[in-house]
Amino acid sequence: MIDVRDVSKSFGDTAVLHNVTLSVDRGEVVVLIGPSGSGKSTLLRTISLLDRPNQGTITVDGVCVFGPDKAGGARGARSGNVGMVFQQFNLFPHLTALGNVTLALRLVKKLSKREAAEFAGAALARVGLADKGHSYPSQLSGGQQQRVAIARSLAMEPAVMLFDEVTSALDPELVSEVTHVMRQLAKDGMTMIVVTHEMKFAREAADRVVFMNEGRIVEEGHPEAIFTDPTHVRTRQFLHRVLDV
After folding, report:
1. What is the DSSP string of 170-213?
2. Which residues form the ABC transporter domain (predicted)?
3. Would the pLDDT of 93 be above 90?
4. Percentage of the chain with pLDDT > 70?
């Protein structure tokens, strides 16, 4: 479903990704872990083409969206094949939850108001917010706002969902309601790449855990293998600190 080959990305003189190669199968949940500044979020942003790589090839759902011979590659990733949810909710405060979800459906997919409302209502129901369609962001908790942001992406019917630290801005008590939605998406077979510091979620929900450090993939494998018997010293150091063991 996702094939990243030899992708590098620099911002000015600062190299953030170094020849990263990663493949994700259809329906697989891959969780990226690692210290801040290791390139996890930048990797997601290159897959979605929010940041264009300096080199490499990216294929999503059989379509090359970036590569040396690909002209206008941004169209593939931005046509709805890839949904991305960020740490910040980025909801329009003057629109209801339903209005926030229908906006892209009407502007990008050119659906009628009625069609967009049907898609949006189904997406809000999928994240447990069927009764909050007419609520404004200020009337919702942080966890509910993040679930609206997830519904906004789901309504576009993406083939792939990318989650970038979506629980980092939430109070601890609200984290579980968002990770519950993500777990359900995983059970439903959604292909997902998740950047998170929630090690419990990584251990329980991931099919594969990928540890990144200094813009490189250092180690990857089944969650139990990574968390109980990592092979790389840098992985062991990181897990020792974050798990406090």
Report:
1. S-HHHHHHHHHHHHHHHHTT-EEEEE-S-HHHHHHH-SEEEEEE
2. 2-239
3. yes
4. 94
